[in-house]
């Protein structure tokens, strides 16, 4: 294990979160950032999110799920809905939300598979598991209709073990400050992710997080992210509501 990776796991163990700039992410996770860049145009084809309960039309997304055995190979699972309990998402919890799956050209790309697998390996060093249940969300938040809200549910946890929030790109927007706070105390950090493939890694049991609204900076713009969640004990399902 490299010194950089050792420092990363130590920071996650100590504080419950770590912010990685692109060169550090590439080194720690053995990523080909050029190959990941080739996937960015798929964010131009995200269908509109029809489930927003705040009446907005600022979010587009795709969603797919995977299994990653501790000593195995990343594998997609049959397409399934995204679901969260109300205890973790007061705005959209309890809804069975079906989104279009991630495009096959993206899901089958070696760079995509390496990203999901490498993060699973990293999180497995902190919490050994038999296998990870991974949900991948491609998001675009735009300002064509005014204010865009990356986290309309507010500061939250996701009900998983680990979360990776990855900036894919942003253009012609102001705002979008990310905030991470200790789930059991006042300590916290604030920053704005600017460079594509900047990554925020979080232990979901230890921190809560949110991103502030964005607004147009001149022409209408957009903020694109990839959110990956890793959970040991199965995908979240309706029988868990009220936990």
Q: For this structure, what is the CATH class?
A: Mainly Beta
Distance between the first and last residues' Cα: 37 Å
Q: What is the helix fraction of residues, given as a range?
A: 10-25%
- Which class of secondary structure composition applies to the elements? alpha+beta
Overall geometry comes to: globular
Describe the structure concisely.
It is built from five helices and twelve strands. By secondary structure, the chain is an alpha+beta fold.
Notable traits:
globular; 243 residues; 7-stranded antiparallel beta sheet
Question: How is this structure best described in words?
Answer:
The structure is a single chain. This protein has 243 residues and is of the alpha+beta class. The chain has a single domain, classed as Jelly Rolls. 19% of the residues lie in helices and 30% in strands. The chain is built from 5 helices and 12 strands. A hairpin with a 5-residue loop joins strand 2 (59-69) and strand 3. Helix 1 packs across helix 5.
How are the SSEs ordered, and which strands pair?
Blueprint: H1 3-15, E1 17-20, H2 22-29, H3 33-37, E2 59-69, E3 75-76, H4 104-107, H5 110-126, E4 131-142, E5 162-171, E6 173-175, E7 178-182, E8 188-191, E9 199-203, E10 207-211, E11 214-216, E12 222-231
Antiparallel strand pairs: 1-9, 2-3, 2-4, 4-12, 5-9, 5-12, 6-11, 7-8, 7-10
Helix pairs in contact: 1-5
